[in-house]
């Protein structure tokens, strides 16, 4: 015989053996449990507890005594209340118990759903924040690169203009030198031509050989000065063209 625990609707007591259960006068609707059972059961569902509920009738007399009538009424009341006890789980009305289970299940499901939704929202927000931060950094990098390029272009422009200015100053300086040389060469050419004319016209106290030498010398000087004037004019034209190309 197993030892059983019994539940009175608020707490469980035990374990009790068969005789102790009999002394407790448990009913068929009393929840009981013993080792090896998966869940509580009503005592009336346990085979080995059935002898507890066998009613031994009294001796039959020719009349029903008030006491007997009272016992019959008690028996009927017990049998009437059995369906009510059978409609409870752990002392709780079955309908209310199932509604309570449904509400608890709904609450747990709602809590889990809310948790995962909040977690998903937090992850999306974190992802969006990270993306915005990366975009901002990319924009700042692009802006920095653009500014650096503009600075390089500006520096190259300034350097190029400086070179042009220096080149222009050099050309102007050279142009002045060429003009001065040209002026001197033209003056010397005029003097050489005058000298040649004089050598050709003046014949007093000179022999033919001396006259010829003076004329040849003057002619060579004139030819040299002519070439120099031509070269200087070419250089002036070249410098002028370069100066026209330089625009600052």
From TrEMBL:
Residue ranges of the TM segments: 96-116
Keywords (A to Z) from UniProt: Coiled coil, Membrane, Transmembrane, Transmembrane helix
InterPro entries on file: GYF_2
GYF domain location: 4-49
Sections of the chain in a coiled coil: 121-181, 208-242
Domain of life: Bacteria
Alphabetized Pfam families for the sequence: GYF_2 (PF14237)
Name under which the protein is recorded: GYF domain-containing protein
Organism field: Flavobacterium pygoscelis
């Amino acid at each position: 015989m197993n030892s059983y625990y019994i539940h009175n609707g608020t707490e469980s007591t035990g374990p009790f053996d068969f005789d102790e259960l009999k002394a407790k006068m448990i009913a068929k609707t009393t929840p009981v449990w013993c080792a090896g059972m998966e869940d509580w059961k009503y005592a009336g569902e346990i085979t080995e507890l059935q002898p507890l509920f066998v009613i031994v009738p009294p001796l039959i007399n020719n009349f029903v005594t008030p006491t007997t009538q009272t016992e019959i009424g008690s028996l009927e009341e017990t049998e009437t209340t059995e369906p009510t006890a059978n409609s409870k789980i752990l002392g709780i009305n079955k309908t209310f118990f199932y509604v309570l289970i449904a509400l608890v299940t709904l609450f747990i499901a709602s809590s889990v759903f809310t948790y995962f939704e909040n977690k998903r929202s937090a992850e999306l927000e974190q992802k969006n924040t990270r993306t915005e931060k990366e975009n901002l950094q990319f924009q700042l990098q692009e802006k920095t690169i653009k500014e650096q390029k503009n600075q390089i272009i500006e520096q190259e422009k300034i350097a190029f203009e400086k070179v042009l200015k220096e080149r222009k100053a050099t050309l102007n300086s050279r142009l002045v030198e060429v003009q001065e040389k040209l002026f001197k060469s033209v003056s010397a050419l005029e003097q050489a031509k005058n000298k040649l004319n004089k050598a050709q016209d003046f014949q007093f106290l000179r022999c033919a050989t001396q006259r010829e030498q003076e004329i040849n010398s003057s002619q060579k000087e004139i030819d040299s000065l002519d070439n120099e004037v031509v070269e200087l004019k070419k250089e002036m034209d070249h410098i002028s063209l370069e100066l026209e190309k330089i625009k600052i």
